[in-house]
Amino acid sequence: MKLDDLPTPCLVLDRTILQRNLDTMARAVSRHNVALRPHMKTAKSIDIARLALSNPYGRSQGITVSTLAEAEYFTGHGINDIIYAVGITPQKLDQVAKLNAAGANVTVITDDADAAAAIAAHPSPTRTLIEIDCGEHRGGIDVGDSALLEIAGRLGGRLAGALTHAGHSYTGRTPAEMAAIAETERSAAVRAAERLVQAGYACPIVSVGSSPSALYAERLDGVTEVRPGVYMFGDLFQAEIGTHPEDGIAVTVLTSVIGRRPAERRFLIDAGALALSKDRSTEATPHDFHYGLVLDLNGHRSYGRTLVQRVNQEHGVIEFSSGVALPDLAIGTKLRIAPNHTCLTAAAHDRYFVVDGDNTVAAIWPRVNGW
Amino acid sequence: MKLDDLPTPCLVLDRTILQRNLDTMARAVSRHNVALRPHMKTAKSIDIARLALSNPYGRSQGITVSTLAEAEYFTGHGINDIIYAVGITPQKLDQVAKLNAAGANVTVITDDADAAAAIAAHPSPTRTLIEIDCGEHRGGIDVGDSALLEIAGRLGGRLAGALTHAGHSYTGRTPAEMAAIAETERSAAVRAAERLVQAGYACPIVSVGSSPSALYAERLDGVTEVRPGVYMFGDLFQAEIGTHPEDGIAVTVLTSVIGRRPAERRFLIDAGALALSKDRSTEATPHDFHYGLVLDLNGHRSYGRTLVQRVNQEHGVIEFSSGVALPDLAIGTKLRIAPNHTCLTAAAHDRYFVVDGDNTVAAIWPRVNGW
What we know:
2 copies of one chain form a homodimer. The first copy, chain A, has helices at about 15-30, 45-55, 70-75, 95-100, 115-120, 145-155, 175-200, 210-215, 235-240, 275, 340-345; strands at about 10-15, 35, 65, 80-85, 105-110, 130, 160-165, 205-210, 225, 250-260, 265-270, 295, 305-310, 315-320, 335-340, 350-355, 365.
C-alpha cells in the first residue's frame, strides 16, 4: 500500500526519522550517568516504546505515561516499570493497585500531604515520588517547603524519590538558556533528594526531564533518570525553539485537496481543526506556522513557507506563499502537513501509517488515546 | 452509578438540557416550510441522532455528516438519508458507492468541474449537490459563477440540488445581524437553484444551514432544508454570540482536582489540552472564557467567572475569581467544565456519560470519532 492510496486525513510516521530522533536523544543522555525513561505521552504506542527502549548508546529504564489508559495499555504489552507523571488522586489508586497486583510496578506522584496519607492508607503499597516545582509553577512544591518532609512522613514506606519537570524549558530560545533551565531542574530535584536523605528517608529515584533540558543539560550529577517525550517526533514549535531540526519531524498529517481557488492562491484540504488540532504553540516563536506547514506527498518542503492559515472542524485553508510557483493541484491531490505541536496533533488519530523514508506503508501501529 | 464515581476526565451529557435544545431548534425551524436535517458533526452519536430526528414540532429528514466514518456509522445504525457536507474527492467515491449499494442514500457535494466529471464517470450513481459560497469564502462557488452550469452539465443525472453554509453567521452578534446573514444564505442557495432550473435541471434539494442562521432566519422561501448542528449542545462561544443560553450547555467535562495552591487561589485539574481542546473561540467575543468555565459537580455556576486559565496536555490550571469565596477543594474533588467550543471538546472523548439533570449516570452513549 502506498501513501497515495490511504483515506485522508490520517497520520503518517516516518520510522527513519523517528529512529534518528531516538538516537540523538539516547546519545545526548548517554553523556551523563543516568537512565533514559522515555515519556510515552506523545507517541502512545507500544511499537514506538519498544524502539525507544532499545537504546544502543546507554541505559533505558521503563517509561513515563500521562494517563492511566497508557499505564494499562503498556503493562498489557509487557512494560511494567512505569511512572504515571500526573498528580494522583485517592480515587485513582484502585486502578493503579490493580495493575500492580497483576505484576506491574506503576509509580505515582503527589505534592499533597492529604493525598500522601490516602496513598499510605491504601491497602496496596504504591511507590510514590514527591513532585517538586522547579519553576514552571504548575504542579509540585518548592524544594525548600516544609511540606516536603510532611509529605515524606505521611508516605512512609511508599516514598520512592523525587520528581520534577522543567516545563518552562520551552520558553528557552538558545542552548545556553536551555542549559540554565536544565540546571535549575537538576538542582531542585537533587536538593529535594538531599533533604529527604538528611531526614532519614531513602530516595532511590531522582527524576527530571523535558526534551529541551534532557538535550542541553551540561551535568546531571545526583539525578537518576530523565523523562523526555516530544523528542521522538519533534514539531514546528520544537524546531523554532532550536531543540529539533525542522527536517527531523517524524509525524505528519496526510491530507487531500478538496477545493481550489488558484486565482487567490488558496486551496482547501480535508485536514482541519480535528485532524491538526487548534494548538498554536508557534504563535510565541519567531515564525508563526499557524496550523501547520504544507509539504508535498513525499514530505518535502516544496512550497516554501506555505501554511495552513485557518481551520474549521474538517476544513483547512492553505495559501501558497507569493514567492512560490503555484502548483496545479487537482481535487484529491495528497499533501502532508507538518504539525505545530505534535502531541496534540497525534492525539486526534488512532493509528500511525508507518513509512521508511519513502511512500510505502510498511506497518500500521495503533495508539492508545483517551483516559 | 453517580458522576462522582466516574474516572476523570470524561464527558457528561445532560439529556434534559439536550432535549430542550432540540425542541428550541425544532420549533424555530417549524416556523418555515422546510425540513430539519440535523448536522451530526458535533454529537456523532446514534442515540442523539434518534432524538434529533424525533421532531414533534415539524418535519425532520435525514442527517448531515462531516466524515465518511460518520456516514458509515449512521448507515450501520439504520439512518440512510445522509448528506456528506464536505467537498468530495474522486478517491472517496468508492466508499460512498459501497454504502449506497448496501441501501444507503449518501449524497455528496462538490464545487469543482473536474470532480463533477469524476462523479459522473463513476459506475455508482451518487447524488450530488453543488456547493455555493454565500460569503464564508471557504468552499463553494459564487452563485453567479459560470462554473455553476458547467458543474451541473458535468454532473448530469447525478445533480440533486444546491447547498450552502453561512459559516460567517458566527461573526454575527445580534439577532438582526444573524437574520441578515441568514437571508444572504437563503438567497444564495435559492438563486443557484433558480439558475439551475432555468437551465433545465431539476433541483429538488435546496439546503442551507448553520445554527445561528437556522435560529434567526426570518424567511426560508425556496429552501427545502436546514442543517444546524451545534445547537444540540451549545457552548460558551454560542452563548457569547447570543445564539444559545449559557445555562443551556448540554455537554461538560467532568474533572478531578489534582493539585492545590489556595494561597494563590489556584488549583490544578486533570482536564487539559486533550480533554478540553485548545479551541479559543471566545477570544473573539466580549468575554473570553479561555479553556472553559468552571462549574461544580452539579453543573451549577457556583464559582462566578472562574476559568481554566491555561492548559498543558493533561493539566488544566484554574484560578478562582477574586470576587468568589475560595472553596476548600480536596485532591480528588470533582468539578465540571463548560466548553469554549463544544464540537472540539466533545471530539476528544469516545463516549458520553448521560445524566437527566442530576448526578446519576442513566446511560453511556458512544461517539464515532476519527475518519
